[in-house]
């Protein structure tokens, strides 16, 4: 119990509600139900939760005249100053009357709870579409780029009366863009980071902001932080706000959708020029994502001038043809889809890149959101790799991956079981990206991650003496599939790689003995013990591959549970078992080779 207490850590609901303590999960559900009830009492029908972000929850409902409304609530757990931002967001949204921007309806306060009301943008946000569809086609991207170009014009040309007052949205990214396939229209939502621009695109102060100039506020930025996975370098480093910020958001968005990633950081290893896009378009995106400001700005200027012409070029409207998957994925069916969460050895991985050693005494198990604060010192490709790993958990999948960087090669072992066949192509894109990005990482070492179903996580509370409270000892869940005898002869992988520095929890020896015994039986799976002061969480998935061994297998799992009741330390420890020792080897590759639409018509036509 000598570990530092976990202080500033909170598992975000975004991870999975199933990982919250019973009490917190109940509170969370109750709160959502209260919101739904209140909105229903106000006369809205079909009220439902449609989104949740770091700052709030978003509900939708229908009024008497069949108008679709959206209600954005700020999280009550946030500081008042942060909650007040919802009112600023309401103000900026109310400035616009444009078909690509949801109409502002009202801002109201119920006790301390602010509620922003606006029109619902019909359709699906582009992050959801990207998860479902995988890489966007060139045609989709050009159509989208044209609409984004139009949006940038709307923002730049905003006027307060006769005075030009360009607006910076500040958070353009796929999840803030709602696409309606029926009407082919795009809407920009989430105005929580928007401000009046201080500078114009050429870096000159904007005359309308005389107040700022007079109040000697010329050096301070009024900019707000957008999503660190999508904002450009200037916004990240606290520069004064300018339309360049949104050009960067647009470039990041187009890049992320073209490559099926959830961030902008992969562009050095997987440039837009490698994605089978029209050459001119790909070059512009890469220029806009450049590390060099002059190149970025020139790219942005080119986009603003030429996007309409680029979008007019003929591009075949065919579905994507994908190369063979870099690593295999198994498919399976299940009645209830898993609520996937990923755990990884990323702390160790990040620490190596953390030059200022700010992570040394952080010992939390799961730092998904928390990592955002520590991303500054990490290389872009490492960030992109971690984001690509997180993206895997957006799919209904269980399994494990290990990446081992040795000499000049990358070795990947995997076991991935996807529970929705229709998502196979997009999941393949997501998995291939992890490999391509890993090929671009030069630091030596090992990275492993497990993907499990949070619904199956066993949680046991401790009493005042530290003993676990339960009526009946819960059982570890497993599936059985019998694979052909020939497959059984292949050597199975055996995942033991010495003490992992991230795993501070000392497990009872008996558990380790059981795991050794389990290893003799052909199976795949993972088990992670996460011991907190008040409770123990056991995350796991198991798949027995030799049905003849089921009796022994389930007996060992029961024993593991019994011995787990002796865990008294705090920390995390776990084991992962991959089914075969068929490690795939990949060469390191600093940058994927160029591939443009016109050059390779067979492949893309
Ligand atoms: N007017 C709207 N019409 C349709 N969908 C909307 C609307 N506003 C928000 N959404 C949906 O709700 C999600 C979350 O909304 P929003 O981005 O405003 O919340 P947030 O808490 O600021 O999120 P984040 O932390 O991701 O910035 C969006 O990704 C989008 O899918």
From TrEMBL:
ATP binds at residue 72. It comes from the Bacteria. Residues 44-310 form the Protein kinase domain. InterPro entries: Kinase-like_dom_sf, Prot_kinase_dom, Protein_kinase_ATP_BS, Ser_Thr_kinase. Keywords: ATP-binding, Kinase, Nucleotide-binding, Serine/threonine-protein kinase, Transferase. One of its GO terms (cellular component) is cytoplasm. GO terms for molecular function: ATP binding; protein serine/threonine kinase activity. PANTHER family: MITOGEN-ACTIVATED KINASE KINASE KINASE, NUCLEAR RECEPTOR-BINDING PROTEIN-RELATED. This is Serine/threonine protein kinase.
């Amino acid at each position: 119990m000598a570990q530092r207490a976990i202080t500033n850590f909170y598992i975000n609901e975004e991870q999975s509600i199933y990982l919250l303590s019973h009490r917190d999960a109940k509170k969370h559900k109750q709160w959502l139900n209260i919101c739904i009830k209140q909105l229903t009492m106000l006369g809205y029908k079909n009220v439902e939760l449609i989104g949740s972000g770091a700052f709030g929850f978003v509900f939708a409902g229908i009024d008497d005249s069949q108008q679709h409304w959206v209600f954005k609530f700020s999280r009550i757990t946030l500081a008042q100053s942060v909650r007040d931002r919802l009112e600023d967001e309401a103000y900026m949204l109310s400035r616009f009357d444009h078909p690509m921007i949801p109409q502002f309806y009202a801002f109201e306060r119920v006790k301390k709870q602010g509620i922003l009301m606006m029109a619902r943008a019909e359709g699906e946000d582009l992050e959801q579409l990207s998860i479902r569809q995988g890489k966007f086609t060139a045609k989709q991207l050009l159509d989208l780029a044209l609409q984004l170009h139009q949006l940038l014009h709307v923002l730049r040309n905003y006027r307060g009366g006769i005075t030009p007052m360009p607006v910076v949205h500040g958070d353009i990214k796929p999840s803030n863009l709602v696409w309606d396939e029926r009407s082919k229209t795009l809407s920009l939502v989430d105005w929580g980071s928007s401000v009046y621009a201080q500078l114009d695109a050429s870096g000159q102060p904007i005359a309308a902001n005389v107040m700022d100039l007079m109040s000697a506020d010329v050096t301070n930025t009024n900019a707000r932080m957008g999503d660190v996975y999508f904002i450009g370098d200037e916004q990240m480093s606290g520069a004064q706000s300018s339309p360049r910020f949104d050009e960067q958001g647009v470039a990041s968005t187009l890049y992320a959708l073209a490559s099926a990633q959830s961030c902008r950081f992969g562009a050095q290893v997987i440039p837009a020029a490698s994605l089978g896009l029209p050459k001119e378009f790909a070059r512009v995106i890469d220029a806009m994502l450049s590390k060099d400001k002059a190149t970025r700005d020139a790219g942005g200027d080119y986009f603003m001038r030429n996007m309409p012409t680029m979008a007019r070029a003929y591009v075949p409207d065919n579905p994507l043809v994908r190369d063979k998957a870099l690593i295999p994925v198994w498919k399976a069916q299940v009645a209830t889809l898993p609520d996937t969460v990923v755990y990884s050895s990323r702390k160790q991985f990040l620490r190596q890149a953390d030059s200022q050693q700010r992570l040394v005494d952080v010992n939390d198990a799961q730092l998904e959101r928390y990592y955002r604060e520590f991303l500054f010192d990490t290389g872009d490709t490492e960030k992109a790799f971690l984001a690509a790993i997180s993206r895997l958990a957006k799919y209904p999948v269980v399994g494990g991956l290990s990446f081992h960087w040795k000499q000049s090669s990358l070795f990947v072992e995997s076991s991935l079981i996807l529970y929705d066949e229709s998502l196979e192509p997009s999941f393949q894109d997501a998995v291939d990206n992890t490999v391509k990005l890993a090929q671009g990482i030069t630091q030596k070492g090992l990275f492993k991650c497990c993907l499990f179903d949070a619904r199956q996580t066993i949680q046991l509370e401790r009493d005042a003496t530290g003993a676990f409270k339960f009526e009946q000892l819960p059982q570890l869940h497993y599936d059985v599939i019998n694979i052909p005898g020939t497959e059984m002869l292949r050597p199975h992988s055996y995942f033991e790689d010495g003490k992992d520095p991230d795993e501070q929890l000392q497990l009872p020896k008996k558990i380790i003995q059981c795991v050794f015994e389990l290893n003799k039986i052909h199976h795949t799976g993972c088990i992670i013990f996460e011991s907190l002061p008040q409770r123990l969480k056991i995350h796991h998935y198991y798949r027995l591959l030799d049905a003849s061994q089921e009796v022994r297998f389930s007996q060992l799992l029961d024993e593991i549970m019994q011995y787990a009741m002796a865990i008294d330390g705090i920390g995390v420890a776990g084991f992962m078992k991959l089914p075969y020792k068929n490690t795939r080897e990949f060469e390191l590759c600093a940058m994927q080779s160029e591939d443009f639409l016109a050059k390779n018509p067979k492949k893309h036509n």
